[in-house]
UniProtKB/TrEMBL annotation:
<dbReference type="InterPro" id="IPR027417">
    <property type="entry name" value="P-loop_NTPase"/>
</dbReference>
<protein>
    <submittedName>
        <fullName>ABC transporter</fullName>
    </submittedName>
</protein>
<keyword id="KW-0547">Nucleotide-binding</keyword>
<dbReference type="Pfam" id="PF00005">
    <property type="entry name" value="ABC_tran"/>
</dbReference>
<dbReference type="Pfam" id="PF00664">
    <property type="entry name" value="ABC_membrane"/>
</dbReference>
<dbReference type="InterPro" id="IPR003593">
    <property type="entry name" value="AAA+_ATPase"/>
</dbReference>
<dbReference type="InterPro" id="IPR011527">
    <property type="entry name" value="ABC1_TM_dom"/>
</dbReference>
<dbReference type="GO" id="GO:0016887">
    <property type="term" value="F:ATP hydrolysis activity"/>
</dbReference>
<dbReference type="GO" id="GO:0015421">
    <property type="term" value="F:ABC-type oligopeptide transporter activity"/>
</dbReference>
<dbReference type="GO" id="GO:0005524">
    <property type="term" value="F:ATP binding"/>
</dbReference>
<keyword id="KW-0472">Membrane</keyword>
<feature type="transmembrane region" description="Helical">
    <location>
        <begin position="74"/>
        <end position="98"/>
    </location>
</feature>
<dbReference type="GO" id="GO:0005886">
    <property type="term" value="C:plasma membrane"/>
</dbReference>
<keyword id="KW-1133">Transmembrane helix</keyword>
<keyword id="KW-0067">ATP-binding</keyword>
<feature type="domain" description="ABC transmembrane type-1">
    <location>
        <begin position="27"/>
        <end position="320"/>
    </location>
</feature>
<dbReference type="InterPro" id="IPR036640">
    <property type="entry name" value="ABC1_TM_sf"/>
</dbReference>
């Protein structure tokens, strides 16, 4: 057995394990598929019996059951045909509704599970992957699976049922013909396996290609402003064309294999059919087979063999679905390293005292970014981190929010290690205004109330006021009901910044972190931020990552970061007196540099 076949089969087993909760429904749907198929092949048998009645009349098979009059025999067969059709239709309705709903429910459960898991994944996971590819898994791959469950699973079950049911009839009527009629079947099954082995890597490639295409499409749509400003439309269109072409080629290869499979199967089927047709005919002429039995066999060979042509399509669907299923389950089963430790308590009331003790950190296997960070921020204080770009200021904050885990040392909040309290309680107690503000498609009011769904309009307004955002909001024609566009495109950088401060303030967190944007802040906003900072930092611990030193001259303590270490710390005046890095930065920013 090849590894390719194993991985497809392994994917199916993983899927079955995942779908444990659906097992009863799967069994029920499978039973309906089997019942439908059994009733579906019966009319052929009844036709054969009817021929037997008209040819042999009082000596017919039905006569042997005790009904002498051929007219009554036919009436009985007519009645039975009606019943068979009713049941066939009933089970068809049942299996359709069961499989289709199952497909819907399973794809829904998988999409929601996969999404929920994606939200829990470590940030490191996202650094190595593209958003577009993830979206493709959540959408396109999930749909692929739905397509298979919608029809493919039923097809596979029905083909197997046909082979078994028709086989049983054949062997009971004439084992000799049965052997001949069944010769193509091993060939077809071997062919299906061969096809599946060849197709599996091709479909894996198709999924990969669709993922990269999705990645580029989503990146390009998000970066449309950059594309336009660099006038690189042609260049980007060419890159999309290439990715789309790679997808097309991958599909073309898969199509070439699967299309070749169908004619091969048909030839094998034809051989089986002609053999039954001829051998059965001769046996009937010889008198070793009844006319009715011959009829049943010829009709049934059709019923037996033709559905196998669908097998190629179904195996195709199956391979595509398994390639997708593997991607979804890989995502769902990606381990999460930053999560609640066993017995983690919720961080209830927080004063806001923060300590870093001997903290070291590196991103993955990269060079260390933070070295031996030791600091204590008293509850209610306002502190600032300053330093060259890349010196590790934002990284420090990411550790405090547990976006990453320190390589060594510990971080405490109110004396409790941050990894000993529950993640969401920690993050709920810390307000974070990040450098790149992310606003959601929706109104200004919804964006300020994001994360505080119960906030009243008054509270939203008060938060906007503290962030000095009311002035521009009131000037907008729809005020708080203005839709800001995806990522807040319809607002200026400074306006987005103020909204994100309002959003953090509405949470009323005991610890507030402002990662000040380097750009996007005009002088107005700078002054506004400074005023709001003074207002809002009273009752909480406030940490500011500052690029403009003028915003933090009043801070209780300023830490100057240099290459991942705290090089200097103290109040503004103390640091100036030290005449070190801070003093030099200050001189540059105030234009007093020599
Ligand atoms: N996710 C990441 N993976 C790998 N390296 C990273 C990652 N994020 C940041 N770095 C690296 O870590 C170092 C510190 O980055 P950090 O963002 O903490 O600096 P910063 O002082 O906040 O800079 P800035 O003032 O420009 O915001 C930089 O050298 C940066 O390249």
């Amino acid at each position: 057995m090849t590894t390719a076949a194993q991985t497809s089969f392994a994917a199916l087993l993983r899927l079955m394990r995942y779908a444990r909760g659906f097992r009863r429904r799967i069994v029920l749907a499978s039973i309906c598929s089997v019942m439908n198929k059994l009733f579906d092949v019966m009319p052929e048998i009844l036709i054969g019996i009817a021929i037997d009645v008209v040819v042999r009349q009082k000596a017919s098979f039905v006569a042997e059951l005790g009904i002498a009059d051929p007219k009554w025999q036919l009436a009985l067969l007519g009645g039975l045909t009606l019943v068979v059709w009713v049941f066939e239709s009933l089970f068809e309705y049942l299996y359709l509704i069961l499989w289709r709903n199952l497909a819907q429910d399973l794809q829904h459960a998988m999409r929601v599970d996969a999404y929920e898991h994606v939200q829990r994944l470590d940030l490191t996971y996202f650094e190595d992957r593209s958003t577009g590819n993830l979206v493709t898994i959540l959408n396109d791959d999930v749909n692929q699976l739905e397509r298979f469950l919608d029809g493919g699973a039923n097809n596979l079950i029905q083909v197997a049922t046909t082979v078994l049911a028709v086989g049983a009839v054949f062997f009971s009527v004439s084992p000799q013909i049965a052997l001949i009629a069944f010769t193509p079947i091993p060939l077809i099954v071997v062919g299906a396996f061969y096809f599946q082995r060849r197709a599996q890597p091709l479909y894996a490639e198709v999924r990969e290609r669709v993922g990269s295409l999705g990645a580029r499409l989503s990146a390009n749509v998000s970066g449309i402003t950059t594309i336009k400003s660099f006038a690189t439309e042609d260049f980007e269109a060419e890159r999309i064309r290439q990715d789309s072409n790679a997808y097309l080629e991958a599909n073309r290869k898969a199509i070439a294999i699967s299309s070749a499979f169908i004619p091969v199967i048909r030839m094998a089927i034809l051989a089986g059919f002609v053999a039954t047709f001829l051998l059965g005919g001769w046996m009937t002429l010889n008198g070793t087979l009844h006319v009715g039995a011959y009829g049943v066999l010829v009709f049934l060979t059709q019923r037996l063999l033709w559905p196998l042509t669908n097998l190629a399509e179904t195996v195709d669907l199956y391979e595509r679905a398994m390639a997708s299923s593997r991607r979804i389950l890989d995502l769902i089963e990606t381990p999460v390293s930053i999560r609640n430790t066993a017995g983690a308590n919720a961080l209830d009331k927080v004063d806001g005292r923060i300590e870093f003790r001997k903290v070291d950190f590196a991103y993955g296997d990269d060079a260390p970014v933070l070295h031996d960070i030791n600091l204590t921020i008293d509850a209610g204080n306002t502190v600032a981190f300053v330093g060259q770009t890349g010196s590790g200021k934002s990284t420090l904050i990411k550790l405090l929010l547990r976006f990453y885990t320190a390589a060594s040392g510990e971080i405490l909040i109110d004396g409790q290690r941050i990894d000993s309290v529950s993640l969401d309680s920690l993050r709920r107690r810390v307000g974070f205004v990040s450098q790149d503000v992310f606003l959601f498609q929706g109104t200004i009011r919804e964006n300020i109330a994001y994360g505080s769904p119960d906030a009243t309009f008054e509270a939203v307004r008060a938060a906007a006021e503290s962030a000095e955002a009311t002035e521009f909001i009131d000037r907008l024609p729809q005020g708080y009901d203005t839709v800001v566009g995806e990522r807040g495109q319809k607002l200026s950088g400074g306006q987005r910044q103020r909204l994100s401060i309002a959003r953090a303030l509405l949470k009323n967190p005991p610890v507030l972190i402002l990662d000040e944007a380097t750009s996007a802040v005009d002088n107005d906003t700078e002054a506004a931020i400074q005023r709001s900072l003074q207002r809002i930092s009273h009752s909480r611990t406030t940490i500011v990552i500052a690029h403009r030193l003028s915003t933090i001259v009043r801070a209780d303590c300023i830490y100057v970061m240099d290459k991942g270490r705290i090089a200097e710390s103290g109040r503004h005046t103390e640091l100036l007196a030290m005449n070190g890095i801070y003093a030099a930065l200050w001189a540059v920013q105030t234009g007093q540099a020599a």
